[in-house]
Amino acid sequence: MSRMLHVFYSLECQLLQKVNRHFDRKLLNLFFRSVTHLGGADITIAATFLLILLSSGEARLTAFASALALSASHIPVHIVKQLFPRKRPYLLIEKTKTHKNPLQDHSFPSGHTTAIFSVLTPYLLFIPQLSFVLIPLGICVGISRMYLGLHYPSDVIAGGILGTVAGSLCFYLFM
Description:
Distance between the termini: 43 Å
Low-confidence stretches: none
Number of helices: 8
Structural class: mainly alpha
Radius of gyration: 17 Å
GO molecular function: hydrolase activity
Membrane topology: Multi-pass membrane protein
Pfam families: PAP2
Strand content: under 5%
Order of helices and strands: HHHHHHHH
Shape: globular
Keywords: Cell membrane, Hydrolase, Membrane, Ribonucleoprotein, Ribosomal protein, Transmembrane, Transmembrane helix
Number of strands: 0
Subcellular location: Cell membrane
Oligomer: single chain
């Protein structure tokens, strides 16, 4: 089992480095530094409240489901970060590039990825046609977390799963 974990960790470090190695490209830097904020607290909270205020009927219920999913997903993220105190990749993997003043807390799971998928999932279920825009948006937020040297691929995958489950449960609770 230990050998398998070592192989998995090695593969995920390689994937992280393949994404992170492009850190010095100006356009990619601008894109990923911007898109990563879409999964941050300021944007996700503001977007959910704005959608609640501007919508009505079933769309408003979806907005409420999205807000509840965002709130509910924050609790397991915090608990899992305490149970699995994994250091961020830029602290452990040599030559990982990151921006000034990077996050210092634990990396598993990715809170930004969890947040964006918890907010997007109710809308994906309510209006599946939005999937062509919303799924790539969520994936870009996840990739941005690796690009910035802040998360391993498994952090991002776990965050995506956690956010999707929270978003789905809250959507079906409201609909």
